[in-house]
Write a structure and sequence with these properties.
The protein has 4 helices and 7 strands; from the N terminus they run ββββαβαβαβα. It is α/β, with parallel strands linked by helices. It has a single domain, classed as 2-Layer Sandwich (Transcription Regulator spoIIAA). The longest helix is centred in the middle third of the chain and has 14 residues. It is globular.
């Protein structure tokens, strides 16, 4: 995927202390989330994931690298998205650190959704498939 053009699909959206920016890298759509992903902002992420799925990308990456709080509502949206999208569309997460990867692993979400520490690693894994 390296060297492929990158385009911004939509303007960043802000909801209750949470920003979601989407972009396309090849056949992969990346939703980069920053801020707080909780009961107030999770519905916006759910809407964005559904809109992204409607474009039929090969894969959807939700990048949680800049999330400083990941609540149960946010985790629920991720599990639902995985269930709704796969196997037709690959769904992976980028999460590294105590605010994101730790709760995802403790709850067991890492057992059902592939999690990568960096966006580059996620994109490399997707291109290898």
């Amino acid at each position: 995927m390296a060297g492929e053009p990158e385009s911004v699909v939509g303007n960043p959206k802000v909801a209750a202390g949470c920003t979601i920016e989407d972009r396309t890298i090849g056949q992969v759509t990346v939703l980069a989330v920053s801020g707080t992903l909780d009961v107030l902002s999770a519905p916006d992420l759910e809407t964005r994931i559904k809109a992204t799925a409607a474009t039929s990308p090969a894969a959807v990456v939700v990048d949680l690298g800049d999330v400083d709080f990941l609540g149960s509502s946010g985790m629920g949206v991720l599990v639902t998205a995985h269930s709704d999208l796969t196997p037709e569309t690959r769904f992976v997460l980028v999460a590294d650190g105590p605010a994101t990867s730790r709760p995802l692993r403790l709850i067991g979400i890492a057992d059902i959704i592939d999690i990568f520490p960096t966006l580059d690693e996620a994109l490399s894994a997707l291109s290898a498939d």
